[in-house]
Amino acid sequence: MKSRLAAFAAAFVGAVGTALSGSVAFAGEPRNWQLGLQDPGSLTAARIDSFHDVLTWMMAGISLFVMVLLLIVIFRFNEKANPTPTKTTHNVVLEIAWTIVPVIILVLMAIPSFSLLYYADRVEDPDMTLKITGHQWYWSYEYPDHGGFGFDANMVSDDDIAKNPQLKRLMDTDNRVILPAGKKIQLLMTSADVIHNWGIASLGVKVDSVPGRLNETWVQVNEPGVYYGFCSELCGVAHAFMPITIEVVSPEDFDKWVEEAKVKFARSDDGTAPAVRIAQNNVAD
Ligand SMILES: [Cu+2]
């Protein structure tokens, strides 16, 4: 309990510090003793976050209402308080009400829910496209609007972490996905083998990557920072070891990175595979 209190105090001080300084890069990752959702990092995630809050209040209200009804039954209609019960079995008005009212509540929930689904589905006129392919057990990425270079992103090994302790175990990849801040990015997903799922909680993205299909969503991230995600579809023995690491940088830094990446991830002449395989699958051995 003491350590929990200490952790809470540390988290609180950290949050206040971040709020005051305002310059710390956004961290799209889970925190110790976190309650609720991760801080929203994208436009979609912000909408999901506020919709979740509205639904939570509605659920709390309904739960409270049902609890009050139960308490009335328990205290007003028990054998002692009400020794001769009525023989009433039907109440037409009441029966219509408890059918119609839940329907109205569900429709009220469905309208913003569908509008959010369509909002997250796709974007018109994206600024760029990122193509994502799931493999057993790593992700590969392509930038078709920037010369079509691509690379694999494998989880960092314990040896890498020993050399660079800043890397997060089970969360960092050897090659990060670099994306520009403030741009509409179309995400196209497919798989080379089995169904994977590209899920990043703080960006509100969780889409299956299915062999032979191209699934689509989009993301706009305004805060530079590092955002972590995971394969979220059971895809085999190393399912837990194919994390996603996204680094969002300013558009100027992104352009610089693209120039470097075009050289670093240059393809062979036939254009089918990177000439140099920098990433290695940690899990194979
Ligand atoms: Cu997977």
User: From N to C, what is the helix and strand string?
Assistant: HEHHEEEHEEEEEEEH
Overall tally of domains: 2
Proportion of strand residues: 15-25%
Q: Summarize the main sheet.
A: 6 strands, mixed
CATH topology of the largest domain: Immunoglobulin-like
CATH homologous superfamily descriptor of the largest domain = Cupredoxins -  blue copper proteins
Description:
The chain is α/β, with parallel strands linked by helices. The protein folds into 2 domains: 79 residues, Helix Hairpins, CATH 1.10.287; 137 residues, Cupredoxins -  blue copper proteins (Immunoglobulin-like). It is built from 5 helices and 11 strands, in the order H-E-H-H-E-E-E-H-E-E-E-E-E-E-E-H. Helix 2 packs antiparallel against helix 3. It is elongated. The C terminus is likely disordered. It binds copper (II) ion.
Ordered list of secondary-structure elements with their pairings:
Blueprint: H1 2-21, E1 26-28, H2 43-76, H3 92-121, E2 128-135, E3 138-143, E4 149-153, H4 158-163, E5 177-180, E6 185-191, E7 196-200, E8 205-209, E9 215-219, E10 225-231, E11 244-249, H5 251-264
Parallel strand pairs: 1-10, 2-6, 5-11
Antiparallel strand pairs: 2-3, 3-4, 6-9, 7-8, 7-10, 10-11
Helix pairs in contact: 2-3
The structure holds copper (II) ion.
Copper (II) ion is lined by residues 134, 196, 231, 233, 235, 239, 242.
